[in-house]
Design brief:
It is a single chain. It contains 14 helices and no strands. By secondary structure, it is mainly α. It has a single domain, classed as MFS general substrate transporter like domains (Growth Hormone, Chain: A, Up-down Bundle). It is a multi-pass membrane protein. It is found in: Cell membrane. Keywords: Cell membrane, Membrane, Transmembrane, Transmembrane helix, Transport. This is MFS transporter.
């Protein structure tokens, strides 16, 4: 997952080298998210049929191919191909790896396993910008070395994934592999809709930090240290992991609405940082917003996983991630388009207002009608 956000602090360097607008930066970012969504819709249930381990190994292989595209990048086309392949890999991972971790958990440890799965997801996404930002700022080959390190890590991941026990029983005859689209069984829909909307709002915040914040830090705040840009993005994902760790104490029923309302506060702080041109306020918004996103995300995923039938668990989790990645892609492209008319600050303020309305609405709804899990 770290490889999917590895290019985040490097977009400024790519802009200098290739020459493209802020809109293209968000498009390059969103192409990754569209790749995730495509993989989830087409292959979201493949691990339910083929097994978790084969799908994980294919995902690692696609991650390696993505890194190779960035290594030999000579313009925008290979950047786009690399991002699409990275999206395919993340899409395969999101449902299958989460389901595998939950199924490998000993009896009574499902809650800890759920935290391990979501923390690895968010923690990996946060580590990518820190790794590439530090290497690009302080080591040679700023557009090559991060991806060489990524490939080395992926080789290790391939070996570990290959040694995992399989958790899916082989069925004879094997069911055919068909794209299932959005699989949301009837009994899960009452929980899926509010949990999905909370995930959409939270991932919208993460999308803003991943795609746009490095440009804001460099162009508006005048901080051109790539390690700082990576650290700002990392703060949001790190806070998300902390927020996920708090869910056990808060409880699923309270964590989902509370996460939405904390997310609202975080997004308000981000908007304030745009108005006041303040790096400390931006970091505060990242931390508060990340905490809210983490609380809501883990509570939503835990709820959806608990109510999904075993035979459709991987597909249902994949559908949950589809909704989340819609939030991380389409709104961010909208921000990029708005920058052409309103500038970076104006577009960010409009975006922030939309996220505040959505997260507040979902939070208030869940306060009045809490879900029945936990």
């Amino acid at each position: 997952m770290a490889g999917t956000t590895l290019p985040t602090p490097l977009y400024g360097l790519y802009r200098q080298q290739i020459g493209f607008s802020e809109l293209i930066v968000t498009v390059v970012f969103a192409v990754y998210a569209l790749g995730v969504i495509a993989a989830l819709l087409v292959a979201g249930d493949f691990s339910d049929v083929l097994g978790r381990r084969p799908v994980l190994l294919v995902a690692v292989g696609l991650s390696v191919l993505s890194a190779v595209c960035f290594l030999f990048e000579g313009g925008l086309p290979l950047l786009l191909v690399g991002r699409v392949l990275s999206g395919f890999a993340a899409g395969l991972f999101s449902g299958s790896a989460t389901a595998a971790v939950l199924e490998l958990a000993p009896a009574g440890q499902e809650g800890r396993a759920g935290f391990a799965a979501t923390a690895a997801n968010m923690g990996g996404l946060g580590c990518g910008p820190v790794l590439s930002g530090a290497l690009a700022q302080y080591a040679p080959w700023p557009l090559r070395l991060p991806f060489l390190v990524d490939i080395a890590l992926l080789v290790a991941a391939f070996a570990v994934a290959g040694a995992l026990p399989e958790t899916v029983a082989r069925r004879t005859p094997r069911p055919p592999l068909r794209p299932q689209g959005m699989v949301v069984p009837q009994q899960t829909r009452g929980a899926f809709v509010p949990a999905g909307l909370a995930a959409l709002a939270g991932f919208s915040l993460l999308g803003l930090f991943t795609a746009v914040t490095p440009s804001f830090v460099a162009q508006t705040l005048g901080v051109r240290n790539l390690a700082v840009s990576g650290a700002v993005v990392f703060s949001a994902f790190c806070a998300s992991t902390v927020g996920q760790s708090l869910m056990g104490r808060v409880g699923v029923r309270r964590a989902l609405p509370l996460g939405c309302l904390v997310l609202t506060l975080g997004m308000a702080l981000v908007a304030t940082s745009l108005l006041t041109v303040s790096l400390p306020v931006l970091v505060a918004g990242a931390v508060v917003g990340g905490l809210g996103q983490g609380l809501a995300f883990r509570a939503g995923l835990t709820t959806v996983s608990a109510v999904a039938p075993q035979e459709h668990r991987g597909a249902t989790i994949s559908a949950f991630f589809v909704v989340a990645y819609v939030g991380i892609s389409l709104p961010v492209v909208g921000v990029g388009a708005l920058t052409l008319a309103l500038g970076l600050r104006g577009a960010g303020l409009v975006f922030g207002g939309c996220v505040v309305l959505l997260s507040t609405g979902v939070g208030v709804f869940l306060v009045r009608r809490p879900l029945g899990t936990g």
